[in-house]
């Protein structure tokens, strides 16, 4: 019967395809290696290749492909695939196709294209793509020395508020022949800017991405062929501090990890047109000064810049550097050298301020209109020595002054000293702020809005998701989420961007990373973060709560370190990435065993650290609830969560060819489930523990509740929300990760909608009603104790964004075919919205879901990308009420699948208009 169903709807679709009058135009685009566009210096010898198929007709399926890869572009254009010609491979795989050609060597260039064969015709990739292999072995860096300056300048200091001037380095080189190709490989710790002949190389900022530099150090690669010329050339770098120095250097050394003073290593490989080559490396002939204009750059405290100290032409030839010193050889950071496989940060947009107001004390308050992350560009005229101070904050006090108590000891201040030469334009290089408001002092004259532009900075990743609905509050929450998520992408996922923390807490992204993946193409960021977590693992198997472990928080619990496993599962579910699981499996299992051996008592996980963090407190002034009835038992949290992780690890064992581990996971799961129900379930009341929403929610979502009492437990959970909490949220970070989907899966999408659209405390809408333009750290973030009320956190989003896409828009990847090879399109049309218009750029292409309804009819426009398909659920059991692309469904076929009062279609790729009356 299943075969009849599938073939029938292929027939239905083929009839609908006749409506598309255009010719079969099929193209192959978006060629990617390791999900990067034309990457330089990748760290993989068997890279994975992907592409997208685009077409103006429906029902396009790839039936075969042929990949051609050559060592030169000339060879590729001549179809001479001297590295790999896959031949015609009969397969529908178009993502993560593993390279199987000749062994790739260090710094190997590869140019490639693909020919795709489909059921509608053949197509070639529109453009050729390129990737290159990095420097794969430590030995290949052995002749390159780390250089720096291991001294403080007269105005530098090491303290709680460390201050260190930037290092400027330069090296004049003489290239005696015409350059054919040139690439530079650079490790600049903590942050760098690279110049050749006065021109900045690349448009990245705050590079490279941060790591624990004692474990691994990232290098960046740039093709600089066009920047070099025969004869004299100048290489120049500026080294900032970043995470390497001065976050809080030598302050609380028992907690905060420090790495030393900035340093760098660089290799420039030059190939000449006559076939010879040359390598220029860092050594002690490079010249260095700390007397440049960047006097200080500290991520917490800001950047100080004295334009009077600018050194015109310092990064060009013929500059007089007699007062510079020779760079010194310094100790390497200690970590292994790795190519950076995730994009750098960039300036991704601009924000223009909306108002500027004078204060009684003679300063000005600038309002950007949006809580943003990045910095402020300044345009100014004045006298030499005039000094402008800009202090950043997220909100204002009642008297209109900056509210800075929630910043703790972060100074968040930039200082610019003018040189007095006409209009001066300045912006910082090596810091960022989280802010909406700026206090301007010392400005010569009266500033206007035109003097300032906000620069929005986050990792260079594409926004892949859009969402709009009939509910204005939900729409604003979505915008707030976008701003919060993007702002906290800084080469790793931060908790907040403004105070003296800015740490990659694991627990903030346990489920959050999943929701974020609908908004941003965050695959490589989170794959890199899993490496950070792996590198932070202790020898006996423990994991920290923060990774990279810039803070030494090794307290052992389940709910925070368990993110290691849930994020890997997200990468598999959303991007079809199996390799990341295989790469991390051993370390993940090591942690699972570590927790079981050390903390499993009587078949329950007897260790929890944070509880259901940040449940809404009973008082608007409190950070944490004092009412024990609101708090969920820590042993319940850790045991339920560990049970869930066992199920994921069982899946991972199959993917990793470690089937022998499955029995271990199964045995533990059976024991924990039995002990959990014995300890926590109250048969008299059909509730768990003290009947908090989280206490009932976790066993329901994780499948611990016996089948015959699930509905009773769920109704108790609903009663707690609807009656005892007056239709408001009462979960913290843990419970909120599963709340919205559980309500909808059990038939109460209307209650989930109520939680999503509430405007009173506690709710996401309460934040909106109180002026939030990002997501708060606390449900009462505008009134709570300032020691913990960041106004730009994302941890309380929980599974809200997942619910937006999967349950409201109906865009969900079928778990059986991860990566959106098949899409499940099943919106809850009756939750409370009257229209949703959403899109998501999956690895196969653009998915759209645009529906609107009234009391009598539903119209739903959907787009399914080529080489994918969708299972589509319509809210009717009456086939005669359905039109597909203006044709009656009953006229297309007499076979239909009805499932729980839904009519189910299996549709191939294409665009459809579905009408239900």
From TrEMBL:
Residues 463-808 form the Alpha-L-rhamnosidase six-hairpin glycosidase domain. The keyword Signal applies. GO terms for biological process: carbohydrate metabolic process. InterPro entries: 6-hairpin_glycosidase_sf, 6hp_glycosidase-like_sf, Alpha_rhamnosid, Bac_rhamnosid6H, Bac_rhamnosid_C, Bac_rhamnosid_N, Ig-like_fold, Rhamnosid_concanavalin. Pfam families: Bac_rhamnosid (PF05592), Bac_rhamnosid6H (PF17389), Bac_rhamnosid_C (PF17390), Bac_rhamnosid_N (PF08531), Ig_Rha78A_N (PF25788). It comes from the Bacteria. This is alpha-L-rhamnosidase. It comes from Flavobacterium gilvum. The lineage of its organism: Bacteria, Pseudomonadati, Bacteroidota, Flavobacteriia, Flavobacteriales.
